């Protein structure tokens, strides 16, 4: 995964997490909010990377996205997004950030970070250079 793809995944996951926090902020507790934001951010990032839209072929070639994220990595990413939500609550509590938007953004960011690490580990195991 190139550094441009990594940044896109992290920004996309953070934005999805922030919007999840904005929508669900008053409806669920902080832990559930962070977990939901992480899972939703992971799913949307995988869909954005795996679904090929014919009108966006130029963007895919510019970002050098040749292969989609494998199913095993997707499943592991969703599992690790649960851990990312818990980590987001820990960081937000220590930092004193208690708003729903920041908790959701942190949950999405950590989930995206863990997903990117899994994809990079998968690529390294296959012998691809990043």
Characterization of this structure:
- With 130 residues, this protein is mainly alpha-helical.
- The chain has one domain.
- The protein is 78% helix and 0% strand.
- It is built from five helices and no strands.
- The model has no long low-confidence stretch (mean pLDDT 84).
**Approximate helicity band:** over 70%
Please provide the ordered H/E string of secondary-structure elements: HHHHH
Q: Quick one: overall form? A: elongated
Number of alpha- plus pi-helical segments: 5
Low-confidence stretches: none
Report the major sheet.
none
Total domain units: 1
Give the beta-strand count.
0
Mean pLDDT: 84
**Radius of gyration based on Cα positions:** 15 Å
Structural class: mainly alpha
- Termini separation: 5 Å
Residues in β-strands, percent: under 5%
In brief:
The chain is an all-alpha fold. The protein has helices at residues 3-24, 30-50, 57-63, 71-95, 100-126.
